[in-house]
């Protein structure tokens, strides 16, 4: 079930970023940071009164330089229309209602998405009356708040949670492996998908039109059902939004949430860029199975070491994903493209793998003997007992004498031991230490 998305929308300088940071800093939990992965703070996973959602700061989205103000608002509002389930429309209570606010309001009305209106910069209760003039925007009760002081934000979140769609049961085909092709613009995502659709039998979906995203494409390869996720968005919309770099990250984010497998598509010609790391970081956070597809393999000069060198480069740029397989493909010639589906099936299996508790505990006991756990102030971490709590991704809970004694590097070591023993190729694994009560 993908989390709902809440976007903060409004003209420049009303305090969108301030509100975003405030909500994250005080009341919301950020997606855990993965060391070594570059990320932008344009979205965060958030929770309020037991309801989880993604919060997007549209103010954090950069535009091309030639865009003027009007254009920027239009694109932000459009973004919210496309991606959000609910919108926080933020205005500035100190400057009062402006023409630009009305401009934004017009877009939001057309979106037909639920809108909660926040009137910011009302730092004192005595200023709250300034919010009344915003009634005329037609979005119901304006909620006075101060992003800077943190007042009124609880009321705002109450209202947001109220309008979020309740969890609906989307029909999900459990046998199908969901595969998302993600990556920055022009690496060849849609070319790869189109090539696959050309080579494999495309199924007619009996749930077409009933799901939230009718752009998922089912297909069968070698008797296995697959669903290619959210790649048609590129075709549907053209390149306009896709070319805003951060926008493609948001697209990837939505796709990643609903996928078993994420293929991170790289461009053999252009090499690895910062944006690739961001995309990879999101996939890693989401916990899906991951492989790298190096596309446009036809387009570069090669000798017998080229593939090896490229793989080394991937390993150095993505040090925490050494377990993700690399496949060199060409959407243009079709080289190894169907092999990608075999790979998807393999890593989806690893992603869903359960290991025996006895075997798990043997591996950890051996690991503990080979490399002694960390200690602090004369106390040493002791691993008592481990269990696999879940799959997709495989998640292990290790009961210990004191979880505070654990150390990132030791957990890395344990992860490597688990991988050596069980494989887990192409899937992240998670290790949680719990103090045994
Ligand atoms: P954005 O462009 O909408 O993201 O706006 P920012 O978050 O960058 O804020 C614009 C300016 O408004 C900054 O100088 C903030 O310090 C200020 N600001 C934001 N929230 C408040 C608030 O609640 N009260 C006051 N007094 N100033 C605020
Ligand atoms: P997307 O933005 O990631 O979906 O990328 P597209 O699929 O639109 O491809 C971007 C450009 O790269 C297009 O001009 C494609 O023709 C070209 N392209 C895609 N795949 C290949 C490939 O395997 N080899 C070569 N030489 N060009 C490719």
TrEMBL record:
Q: Does the keyword Repeat apply?
A: yes
Is Nucleotide-binding included in the keywords of this UniProt record? yes
Residues given in the record as GTP 2 binding sites = 183-190, 230-234, 295-298
Task: Give residues annotated as binding GTP 1.
Answer: 10-17, 57-61, 120-123
**Signal peptide location in the record?**
none
Quick one: a GO biological-process term for this protein? ribosome biogenesis
PROSITE patterns in alphabetical order: G_ENGA
Report the family membership. Belongs to the TRAFAC class TrmE-Era-EngA-EngB-Septin-like GTPase superfamily. EngA (Der) GTPase family.
Subunit composition?
Associates with the 50S ribosomal subunit.
User: Under which name does UniProt file this protein?
Assistant: GTPase Der
Its taxonomic path starts at: Bacteria, Bacillati, Bacillota, Bacilli, Bacillales
* Gene that this sequence comes from: der
